[in-house]
Amino acid sequence: MEEQVFAEVDRFLGETIVAEDEALRAAVAAAEAAGLPSIQVSPPQGKLLQQLVRLVGAKGILEFGTLGGYSAILMARALAPEGRLITLEAKSEYAEVARQSIERAGVGDRVEVRVGPALELLPVLEQEEAGPFDLVFIDADKVNTPNYFAWALDRTRPGGLIIADNVVRGGTLADSSDPDEATVAQRHLHEMLASEPRVDATTIQTVGSKGYDGFLIALVEHA
Ligand code: SAH
Ligand code: DHB
Ligand code: MG
Question: What is the bridge-based pairing of β-strands 133-138 and 156-164?
């Protein structure tokens, strides 16, 4: 019953303050038509990402987990002038759907979709001396969230943000006996951050059309 109310509130928000435009609706439709799972950020979550991108004045963004390009389009639209977003996606067929939707949304000049398991793409970014980034959004395979976070922490500028989706996982984050590897990884990440002076972090639990989960938001401290 509560789940239904959460979804109804997201629907109301989608009809009022976080309405999607034609390009975003087209991106959702293209992803659905291609058989991609419907696990993109919700419109209210997407708006939060956009606000954070604007607040840090982000010019360089790295995203882990492109799917159909929905969050990439939203963040790219919020970039500062001349800003660029690189997004990493393991599945080439998802990346292709994303590229088309990104192009259709008019942000193709600002977004680069790279294909491969993120852990294999990171050394390439290193070689290119990509970054430091202003904002990193981690939303790929959840077992690797702590690894992506550790990599991002060395490559995000002071005052920048590292955001991770799906850290609360239906509340299992609080259950030390949960054997699920993705949950264990989020617990590990939080434990890691408890003694990490380089970030000031919080986790906000979220409910809505995607059920019960949460975002970790970490502000990179000045030295
Ligand atoms: N950020 C997207 C949703 C991402 S869903 C949005 O909100 O619109 C998670 C994505 O991560 C999926 O597309 C999945 O294929 C991708 N993924 C899973 N494992 C990955 C890996 N090892 N490297 C890169 N991407 C991965
Ligand atoms: C899944 C991935 C996500 O990033 C998300 O927000 C929800 C679900 C998944 O892989 O099932
Ligand atoms: Mg997610």
Answer: parallel
* 3-state secondary structure (DSSP) of residue 168: coil
Question: β-strands 60-64, 84-89: how paired?
Answer: parallel
Distance, C-alpha 21 to centroid of its chain:
20
Residue nearest to atom 2 of ligand 2 (CA): 39
Distance in angstroms (rounded) separating the CA atoms of residues 149 and 160? 13
Q: Which protein residues touch ligand 1 with a CB less than 6 Å away?
A: 39-41, 65-67, 70-71, 88-91, 94, 117-118, 139-141
Cα distance between residue 19 and residue 70, in whole Å: 14
Report pLDDT digits (tens) over 57-88.
999 999 999 999 999 999 999 999 999 999 99
Ligand 2 centroid – CA 69 distance (Å) = 14
Q: Is there an atom of ligand 2 within 6 Å of 63 CB?
A: no
